[in-house]
Amino acid sequence: QVQLVESGGGLVQAGGSLKLSCRASGTIRADDVMGWYRQAPGVQRELVASIRTRSIIVYADSVKGRFTISIENAKNMVYLQMNSLKPDDTAVYYCNVRREIPFDMPRHYWGQGTQVTVSS
User: Which of 13, 33, 44, 103 could form a Cys-Cys staple with 98, CB 3.0–4.6 A?
Assistant: First the structure.
C-alpha cells in the first residue's frame, strides 16, 4: 500500500513560480511511475508530468519548458517545480503512483490534492 501527501500549493500571480512536494509512505518499487496530474473545474484530470527510474520523463505539451519533475528516492519524495505560471495552470494538483500489475490493470495511488491558483 502507498500513501501520498502533497504540499506546496497556493495562490501566485501569472509569471510566478511554485514548487509542489509529495511524500510517499510505503514501499515504492523501482519500476513504479511517479507523477503529477491536475484537474480544473469541469475538466478531465490530466497528466502533467511523470518520472520513472529518473531517466524516463514525460511532460504534457502545455507545461514543457516551464515545469520540472524530480524525485529524491532516499526520502520517497517527488517534486514539481512550476515556473512561468499561467492562469490556465489553475487546478487541483494530485500526486500519483502508477504500479504495473502482471496480467492486470495498473494500480493507481493518489494523494488528496493541493490547490494551485494563478491570478492574471
Answer: 33
Q: What is the CA radius of gyration of the chain?
A: 14
- For residue 75, report the phi and psi dihedrals to the nearest 5 degrees: -110, 5
Buried-state track 6-32, b at ≥16 Cβ within 10 A, e below 16:
bebbeebeeeeebebbbbbeeebeeeb
Q: What is the 3-state secondary structure (H, E, C) of 35-55?
A: EEEEECCCCCCEEEEEEECCC
Question: Which DSSP letter does residue 106 get?
Answer: P
Cell of 16: 510566478
- Calculate the average pLDDT of the chain: 94
